[in-house]
Every structure is written in structure tokens, then in C-alpha cells.
Amino acid sequence: MSGPAIAITIIVAYFVINAVVIRLMGRKQESLEDFGIGNRSFGWLLNCFSYIGGWYVGAIYIGWFANASGLGVFAQYVIIYSITSLFIMFFMARPVWILGKVYNLETQGDLIELRYGSRAFKFIFALLTFVFWVPWLIIEIKAIGYVVQAATYGSIGFNIGLIVVSVFVVAYCFLGGARASAVGGLVQGITFTIVGVIAVYWLIVKTYGGYPELYDSVEQFNSGLLQLGALGGKYWFSVVVSCTMGGYIIPGVFATIYRADSSRAVKKSVLIAPFAGILIGFTILSLGLGLAQFSDFPADPQSSAFWIADKMGGPAMLGLIGILALAAAMSTLSAVLNTASLLISKDLVGTLFSKLDRGVLFKWARILTIAIGAVSIVIATTDLPNLMSISLVMYDCSVQAFPAVFIGLFWKKANLPGAAAGFFVGCFFSLVGNFYPASIAWAGGWSGGIIGVFFNILILFVCGLVCKRYDRVDELFDTVKTYKEVHTGKAI
To answer: Are 65 and 304 a contacting pair, CB within 8 Å?
Structure first.
């Protein structure tokens, strides 16, 4: 059997496994709550891999891997913020889940409306956070194209690969909603967490001899790769902070919390996920760290993970790395797609047309799954810059949602004027800083996102001390304080 045939066979077999498991564990979708948040029924194991599957992206094998070889340890910011974000989510899990259960919240926008009492702010907040966050769809679909093309030795073209795989994901999200997405995340998360770490560690040993030899060779080749580099410590710290807060605040995180059968299930999930993050992120980025020293290192560094897999393990290892990257990309794609369709249906369409009943919004959510998927696939076939650079802009903007949500959960005096004004000012600095960086040169290396979130928080606190707070805030805080949970202890 030829090299391409071996790799393609491995990938096809993996797709069959996904389809069978999703079909066996799937359930008929009968309501918006079923479709969007799985009827709040997920145990800790399914919730955990729903987190992991949605959080750890296929682009880590593409854009981040390329940057590990070019920027060195700077690229490992993804490990730091993945861990810190999840610990932040540990503390907010209980209030978010309880408010969701008591007040029937299903989206991040629902929480904003409940906390600040404004449908208009909910609409604008949901719209902007959607715009800042939804590029993950494009990133992951584009990553799928890279993976399929590289893992099949170019036998399957970039566009054909991304279309076929993405349509498969769109189909099971349309048919199975949140549960199909979570079950897919379970299969895919186990794949790149357990199998992936073992396979990549094998490649590190095969390529360098082990971790000590890896760092010795990088020190001799280019010691700058073991430092933060020309981008500077302030920028690196800005990236870590903005990604920590921005990563926690993305709409998909709230959907995952609402899916759990208890806040205890959420907390167990986010205590396990950081360890998976360390294993996944550190091993794959360490492998990429020293590859540029090889004379046959590919001209396109975004294909270097597949190049080294083929070089050291042949078609079988190439096919295995291909399914690891596809697993990560598919799980993120399904999680974002499911949440995005619910967000637009309920927070945007449902807010504009408040008389629509939930049955109609359920139909909207299913139709939007196909529509959003189709538009994202078309955009992904166009030329885009390095995937990591796109994600940095996204998080720089997404972080502006942090003060209104997180501080609003724990500080009673946070109010609508402060939350809205701070959010808009923060978004302004984030956008200006990313698209006109010369305009924030006065900040001495801090990113637009960090400048924005500083003023965002400042405005929120000033308005909280000066202006009247939302009338029902005491009721919400009392609800969280006095709520008694029933723990089922189930895993699935």
C-alpha cells in the first residue's frame, strides 16, 4: 500500500469511529434547550471533554507549531493562558451555573441581560463578542484544510479536504446539537489528549533523543528561541493576560457551563483540563522548538509538524498526526458552531423579534448551523495570514467582555452605565491597538487589549461607586448564596 493510501485509510477509519460513537450516544433534538445546552444533563466526564475538545484547537499543530520554530518559547504562552483561564472558570462556575438553572439562561447574553437589566446592551454585547470570537470557525476550518492536504501527501487538495471534513461536522451538529458536539469532543479529546501526547513524545525522542537533548540542541542552534525574543516581555505578558481573561469570557465557555448537570461537574471538569493542557501544549510545542535547525525544514513552517512526522515515522505516523490535528480542529469547530447558532438565534434574532416563541427559535438555531457553517467554509478557502496572529487579535478584543461579566458576578455595585461604557471604551482601544499600532506607541509595549481592559475596569469601578446599581442585584446574589444543589455524581 502506498504512503498516501496508508494515511488516508487511517483518517477514514477515524471518521468512521467518530460517526459510530456520535450515532450511538446521540439523542433526538426536541427543543431549543436540548439543541443548545443538552437539557443541562452532562455529567463531569462528558463536560470535561466538552471543555477540552472546544478549548484545545487544531491550529496548535499549524500556526502555533510554526511559531514555536520561529519565535521559540514565546509560542508557549498558549500553555500558560489555557491553565490560568480554566482556574478562573473554576471560581465562576457556581454562580453562572446556578443563575442559569434558576433563571433558565442558555447564553452569555442571557446572563448580561439578567445582571444589567437591558435587552439593548445584551444585543450589542452579544453581537460584538460574536464578531470577536467567531473567527475561530475560520481558523479551525482552515486548519482542517492544511491537515488533510499535508497528511495525505497532497493527494487530497486543501479546499476539498476542508469542505468534506467541515460538512461532516456541520451535519452532526445540525442533527445532534450540543450533545453530538460534546460526544464528538469526548472521542476527539481522548484521541489528542492520550494518543496525541504519547505519539508526540515518541517523535521528540526519535528526533532529538529526549527533552535534555532537545534543549541542548536549541541552545547551540539559536539560544534566542529559549527567550521571549524581539517581541519583548511586556508584549508576552500582555498576550498571556488578555488571553487568560479573553479565553475565559468567550461565549462557548458559558454554553459548556450551562450544559452540566451541576456546578460540581463543571468544577471537576476544569480541574482536570489544565493537566491535559500542559501535556498537549508542552509536548507539541516542544517538538516544534528545534526543528528549524534541520537543513530540509519546509519553506512553509505551518506544515512542519507533518513533515517531521513523515520524516521520523513514515505514512503511519503522518496519518496519526493527521487525525490528532483533525480531532482537535473538529472538536473546536463543533463547539463554536453549536454555540454560535444558539447565540444568533436567541441573543440576536430573539432580541430583535421578542414575540417569537422558542419553537421558532429552535428552528432558527438549526438552520443557522448550516448557514454559519457554509459561510465559514467559503471564507476559509480564501487567503488569510498566520493563524496565530488572527487569534491574538481576537483575544485582544474578547478580553473586553471580562469586566462586565466576571466583576459583575462578584461585585454588587457593578451597574449598566459602567459595564456598557467600559466595554465600548475597551473595544475601541483593542481595535485601534491592533489595526493602528503606532497610535499606542506611548504605552511602551503594552497591547491595545491590555490598555483597553485597564480603562474598562476603571470605568466600571468609578460608575459603580457613583451611579445607582441595578435594582434586582441583591436578589441575584441571594439566589447564588442560598441555592442548594443536588449532585448526581454521574459521568456521562
So the answer is: yes
Distance between CA 300 and CA 304 in Å, rounded?
Answer: 7
Determine the Cα–Cα distance for residues 3 and 151; give it in Å rounded to an integer. Answer: 10
Q: Are 38 and 367 in contact (CB under 8 A)?
A: no
217-239 confidence digits (pLDDT tens): 888 888 777 776 555 566 667 77
Residue whose C-alpha is closest to residue 128's, from 364, 398, 351? 398
Distance CA 431, CA 448 (A): 7
Query: 312-347 in b/e burial notation, b at 16+ Cβ within 10 A?
Result: ebebebbbbbbbbbbbbbbbbbbbbbbbbbbbbbbb
Q: Are 63 and 394 in contact (CB under 8 A)?
A: no
Q: How many CA atoms lie within 13 A of 322 on its CB side?
A: 34
Distance in angstroms (rounded) separating the CA atoms of residues 293 and 299: 13
Q: What is the pLDDT of residue 226?
A: 75
Number of neighbouring beta carbons within 10 Å of residue 384: 14
From the CB of residue 483, how many other CB atoms can be counted at a distance below 10 Å? 15
- Third-level CATH fold of 3-384: Sodium/glucose cotransporter (1.20.1730)
Per-residue pLDDT tens digits for 404-460:
998 999 999 999 999 999 999 998 888 888 777 777 777 776 777 888 889 999 999
Sequence ranges of the domains in the chain: 3-384
